[in-house]
Design goal:
three-stranded mixed sheet, Serine Threonine Protein Phosphatase 5, Tetratricopeptide repeat, alpha+beta, 51% helix, four-stranded antiparallel sheet, 3 domains, Immunoglobulin-like
């Protein structure tokens, strides 16, 4: 009893006085965030809000690993009745203390882990096949661990099992301190259903390699599609032309306010030049847009209807604007 009291007192002193003996190589940014999380977790521990404190200790440990933080996390898990998690963290602290040559920390962690050992709930996962992939609460379980008691925390757990060509298995179960050695068995996984052969297929290998010619899909012809695209582009062109036409008119009126007779200020000259440029863009946009809209309409309304067949040679439709500026082609 005296020894247990001394161990508990020693651990308390270690956690409170020197909690942040950190491993070498921590980044400064991570260390600052880790320190903030650690201090907040300590305050939560003081008010016995262990469920909130433990995740913060864990986050602090991920950012800047340290023996002190690890021991605090293990202590928090123990107080929150997560005995398996506490036991595992104490063993991590033992390994870390050995690497850093901290014999006093190693002894403290070892004594705490040994004290927890008799209280652990150990789950046995049984499977008739060793080729299945098993996950416990989302964490992969090595096939060698199947059938070996694994320490788990009390509460609900999810077990998943899968294998190639087999249906997956999943179950949720709950363990408590009343059952120290619970077990769960993975049943033989069922085969995945085989693909059904297509009706009318011959079983001969040579016939399976021969594919039936694709059926013609009903719907719009390519010519109609091109016509719709052209009309859409024409509408955009007209919109652009109209916009720059309005801008040209507005700019030209503004330029006239800087002119008196045949003489203009430099601002008026610049505005007149800008109006000329936007006027050219407006002209091109209107002409090209109109041509595309007209050509698209011709292509669309002269396209053959669905399923229409004709022996005549395709007729070409071309709409041009200027010396090759816009040319739209198609056949029907």
């Amino acid at each position: 009893m005296l020894r247990a009291t001394i161990v508990a007192s020693s651990l308390c002193a270690v956690l409170m006085v020197a909690p942040h003996v950190r491993a070498a190589g921590d980044s400064e940014g991570g260390a600052a965030a880790a320190e903030s999380l650690f201090q907040e977790a300590r305050k939560l521990m003081d008010t016995k809000r262990y469920g909130e404190a433990c995740p913060k200790f864990a986050a602090s440990q991920r950012l800047a690993p340290a023996i002190g933080t690890l021991l605090n996390l293990a202590d928090c898990y123990e107080k929150n009745n997560q005995l398996a998690s506490a036991w595992a963290r104490f063993h991590e602290a033992i390994a870390l203390a050995q690497r850093l040559g901290r014999a006093n920390r190693e002894q403290t962690a070892r004594e705490r882990a040994e004290k927890l050992e008799p209280r652990l709930i150990k789950l046995s996962i049984l499977s008739r096949s060793s080729s299945v992939e098993v996950k416990l609460d989302g964490n992969p379980i090595d096939p060698a661990a199947l059938g070996t008691p694994i320490p788990v925390d009390p509460g609900k757990h999810t077990l998943e099992a899968s294998a190639k060509g087999k249906k997956s298995f999943s179950t949720t179960f709950e363990v408590s301190e009343k059952s120290k050695t619970p077990s769960v068995e993975i049943p033989a996984l069922e085969d995945e259903p085989k693909e059904k052969p297509v009706a009318g297929d011959d079983k001969r290998p040579d016939d399976k390699k021969t594919k039936a010619p694709p059926k013609e899909e009903s719907g719009w012809s390519t010519q109609k599609t091109i016509g719709v695209i052209a009309m859409g582009a024409g509408a955009v062109g007209l919109g652009v032309g109209g916009y720059f036409g309005l801008k040209t008119s507005s700019t030209w009126k503004e330029a006239q306010t800087y002119c008196s007779g045949l003489e203009c200020e430099q601002t008026g000259v610049d505005l007149a030049s800008e109006a000329k440029s936007t006027g050219n863009i407006a002209t091109i946009g209107v002409i090209a847009g109109g041509a595309l809209l007209l050509g698209g309409a011709v292509l669309f309304f002269t396209a053959p209807s669905d399923g229409e067949k004709t022996g005549a040679a395709p007729r070409a439709v071309r709409v041009g604007v200027g010396p090759g500026s816009v040319v739209l082609g198609g056949s029907f």
